[in-house]
Each structure stands twice: as C-alpha cells, then as structure tokens.
Amino acid sequence: MIxxxxxxxxxSTGPLAPFEFTRREPKPNDILIEIDYCGVCHSDIHQVKNxxxxxxxxxxxxxxxxxxxxxxxxxxxxxxxxxxxxxxxxVDSCRTCANCKEGFQQFCENGSVGTYNSLEKDGVTRTYGGxxxxxxxxxxxxxxIPTNLDxxxxxxxxxxxxxxxxxxxxxxxxxxxxxxxxxxxxxxHMAVKFAHSFGATVTVFSRSISKKExxxxxxxxxMAITTNPEKILETHAGKFDFxxxxxxxxxxxxxxLQFLKRDGKMVLVGLPNVPPHIEVGNxxxxxxxxxxxxxxxxxxxxxxxxxxxxxxxGCDIELIAPSRINEAFERTLNSDVKYRFVLDxxx
Amino acid sequence: MIxxxxxxxxxSTGPLAPFEFTRREPKPNDILIEIDYCGVCHSDIHQVKNxxxxxxxxxxxxxxxxxxxxxxxxxxxxxxxxxxxxxxxxVDSCRTCANCKEGFQQFCENGSVGTYNSLEKDGVTRTYGGxxxxxxxxxxxxxxIPTNLDxxxxxxxxxxxxxxxxxxxxxxxxxxxxxxxxxxxxxxHMAVKFAHSFGATVTVFSRSISKKExxxxxxxxxMAITTNPEKILETHAGKFDFxxxxxxxxxxxxxxLQFLKRDGKMVLVGLPNVPPHIEVGNxxxxxxxxxxxxxxxxxxxxxxxxxxxxxxxGCDIELIAPSRINEAFERTLNSDVKYRFVLDxxx
Lengths: 347, 347
Hints:
With 347 residues, chain A is an alpha/beta fold. Chain A contains eleven helices and 17 strands. The first copy, chain A, folds into two domains: 2-159 and 316-344, Alpha-Beta Complex (Quinone Oxidoreductase, Chain A, domain 1), CATH 3.90.180; 161-292, NAD(P)-binding Rossmann-like Domain (Rossmann fold, 3-Layer(aba) Sandwich), CATH 3.40.50.720. In chain A, strands 3, 4, 5, 8, 9, 16 and 17 form a seven-stranded mixed β-sheet that branches. In chain A, α9 (281-284) links the parallel β14 and β15 (289-292). The first copy, chain A, is globular and about 60 Å long. The interface between A and B is medium-sized, with 34 and 34 residues. β15 (289-292) of chain A pairs antiparallel with β15 of chain B, so a sheet runs across the interface.
C-alpha cells in the first residue's frame, strides 16, 4: 500500500480538512500519478454536501486531475515514468457492455466507477479523488496530456472541458452556425472557447453584464442579458442553431427554446434539482430538440485534450493552495471565480 | 362567387349545424375541388370549443380533405378537371421566407394560412374547411392523390398521416430499430403502420389492453400496458431507438424517456395543455433527445401520399354522414373510434 494524504470531507456539513489514507500498489495495468494540479468542480460541492444523496465519508473529492507518472505496472504500454497523465470523472467501468465497447464509459450499463465517492469494481474498495498527493489508476482510464500547455490550465479540461466539447462535437457545431452559451462559469467559459474555436458565432446569455468583457475576450461575438426576457426575445427569437445550457440553478428553459431556429437544438449539461416545465409548443413549432449530455467517454476525452494541445486551449483558472479549499468552495458557490479554482497539490 | 354549404359551429358551446356560404371563383392558380370525404381530427374539436383561444365563428372545420377537381384556373399546371386532389392543414403561406422556400410551409416565418379558422393572405377573407361540399385552393397547396387507394381511407392521411410520417422519416426510422408508439388513436395507428412499413420493430404503449389485437394487426410486434410503470420499466428500460408520443392528454414523459437507449429520441406530436415536467437526468444520462414535430410541409405531404399509394397504406376509418358530426365529436372525445371518422360529403 502507498501512504498518501489529501483533503477530505468527514460529514456533509463540516469543512474539508487534511486526511491521511492509502492507495493500492499499481497492478500490472495501473499507473501511479503524482498529482500536480486538481480542479475544483461545482459537483464536488454537491457531493460533499450530499445533495445527490449518495455521499460516503470520509470523501476526498476531485476529478480534474493532472500530474506526472512515477511508477507503472508491468503491462502498461501507454505511459512511461515521467509522462504527464490526467484523470477525469471515471476510473473504471464494466468494459464489456455495448456502451463501454463503443467508448461511452460514462453510460456503462453496469455502472461506471467514479473517481471518488464510488466503489471499485471489486464492490468494496472506496475511491478517493484528486484533492490528494497521488492516485493509482488503470492506464485505460488515464489520459495523455499535451506537453505544450500550461499544466495548471489543463486540469479542468478533464471535466469542464469534455462536458462542453462533447455535445458541441456530437451535434456538429461549426462554421456558419450561431451558437448560444447559457451561463458563463466553469463550463460556460469552456463552451465559448470551443464553439468559437470550431468556427461558430457565439452569443453568451447571462444575467450579469459585468461578464461582457470576459465573454468577448473568450471568443463570443456578443453578450445578451437575460434579465428582461421580452426584450431579449425580440432580438434573438428564432436565430440560433444550437444552444448549450450550462446552468444548474432552476431557470426557464422555454425562453431559450424560443431562441432556436427550425431544427435548432438545445442541450443541457447542468442538472437542476427542480425538474423544469417544457411548453411543448416550443418544441413542436420549429421541430426543435431538447437534449442532455454527460461528460464524455475516454476516447473522446483524449480527442478533446489532443485538440486543446493543437489549438492551445486551456481553462481560465485561479491557482490556490489546497489548504484554502473551504474558501474556494464558498467562492464557487457565489460564482466568484474566473473561471475555475485549481488546487496546487505540490504546494 | 360559388355558393356552397357545409356544417359549421356557431359558437364554442353549441352543436355544429348546416351552414350556407360562398367560395371564391378560382383565380388563375386555383383549383375548385368537389369534396368527397373529410376526416374528423381531434384538433377540429379543440378549435370548435375555442380551446386554443383563437376561434372565430361561424367555423367550418375540416383539414383532411379529398375530392375531385371540377374547375381549374388559367395557369394551373398540376391538375386537370377530373383529377383527384387533397388539401391538408394549410392553404397558403408567405412563400418567400427561408422555411417556405425549403418546403416547410408549416413553419412559415410570416404565418401560414390554416385551412379553416384563419385569414387568407389578404388579411380579411376567412378560411372555411372541409366539412363542406367544395373548396377553392391554390394548386401549390393542393396534393395529388394516388388513384389506387380507397379514397375515403386517404382523407386522414392529410393530417394524421403526415403528422406521423414526417418525424419517423426525419429521424431516420428504419430496419433494425426498435420503435415505440405512445397511444393508439388516429395518429398512433398511422405511426404503427408507417414505422412497421419502414422496417422497424414496433411496440405500442397504451393504457388499454383491449387494443392489443388491433395493435398487432396494424403491424406492432407487441403491446405494452402502461398502467403499472414499475413493471413496464423492468421490461423496456433502455431498449428503444425512437418513441413517437401521440397523446395530447397530460401524461408523464419521464417514463418513456427511460425506455430510450443511449442517443434515443422521443418526439411529441400532441400538444398537452399542461406543460410537462422533465427530469433532466433522463436526458443527460444516455444523451437522449426530446423533440417536437408539426404536420409536414407540402413537398413531404406529397411524398407521404405517393408512399402510401406505392405501399397501399390508408387509414382505418369509420364512414359517417355529415349530419352525424356532433355524434362523431362525442365519440372522438371518448376515444370510441377505430381510428378516424370520415365524413361522406356526397351523402
């Protein structure tokens, strides 16, 4: 066993605090990663507060992990010691169902293994995430990291990056298209970067005019303030090919459905805890689509990282010491971060 | 002016009764159709009862019209006197917007002209529908009718047929696919016929076991009773490529979303007057789509009729005299028709 340490939640209401625990020795297909950086995802907060109802403690959050390989198992072929490596939301799956075989491990029919707050396939070993010094993972669920990027800006690509890249690719966003991004946070700012990079014309929908300068800097052509729905409808109704909605807080989806053109598509990547109402006429008139998307499989996550390396895309981040994690949670809840906290696990 | 007669509603609560009115003389691009048959669509009842809030009276309903051409304008090229002709839900549109130019007249950006309870493009002339002896319509909005079909079974194709044909075609339903049809009424029974004809394996979801024999006769492989959601989920969760939901009455869409496979699509063609709740997790987990579809444009309606001629597909109907229209409305409201009333306008 490998002794390590990190930050854990010990119950659903208290702060995170230092925690000592062990990782398994690498098995033949495993790699040991010394973690350099780990992003702070809003879902870490949901999990720690047990807002999804399945929390187990102590819980070491973190699924936006990058670091260096320091040890490899005897059968490892994808990595050598010294390589950069990343881990996202998943560390295993059944590997045999139709979805796994097609590379959609996030939809494993037998249940994928989350990077933390989950059980390994043995059914008993708990998983601990990236708010820690090291992690041991099968090379099949580890990602190759482009060497030309600023490593700390890569960490959040493992969740915020793939969550937005995947639907934009799946629904074929590209040149000549008008794309809306709802919400400019960790996910939204990456959606703007990708959609712009794919050649689309991007509008950011936000309640906060203060983000306009950032929206334009990130690649948007315009910012639309949503506080006056009637006015915004007048300008934008029927204009958009594709809208990606990154907002988890309850909000009216019907407004955005009206922004779509005929055959337009709106995709949700946030999970509101109150089920939204849909005016069915907003789908029927114009043959419109409302869909959902969940992170991405391992092959597409690798594709996204390679794309980011080629096009020099990283996240906009604020680097902090792990000891400030509770402050980072507070500020994330207040949307007071541009646009992702990243823990400096070497500090 | 051409004197004619039909059945009209004179207010939103009373019965339909005989009504005398006039049609315009055919203009150069118009044809005069002596109506043989007109289908009774559930939306005729919504309109007459002013349930969509835009009723004007007297109202002559009817948008599933077939008959014979008895007079043509000087520029008409598609029809000669004696031809069969049909009229569906639309009799005109702006013809210049992007949707019209692409053949999607049902989504005309400047407002299409409904076959009844609408205003012609002159902004003043009211339109009257097919519960009448004749109709005058631009040849551009008249359909050619295959001569090999039993004419009275063709009438409901103009609405019930195209409403189900269009989404099944648009989303590429075909061999090897598992398709669900929710509701076995006027729309549902045509969805079963088309999906089966396109090579899919069809399951009918209904509350009523009494329809099982019919479902199988129409082309379904099985009938699933929806009165016990837990049991039906056990059997059908994650199994369907495509579901077409033809039910207008409020019902839980989340049950059906769970029947879809990864990347499965559910399309609504009914318009519930209570906006449904969507559990967003049912879209996100499995990258599923909820969409809507509205009748079809003129080119696709013609394609559908041609397909029906080639494959000998008509609607299952119950032929009645127009004088029994009020009884037909009552029985339609009670789902007591297999599967569409058609008025015999020659009787």
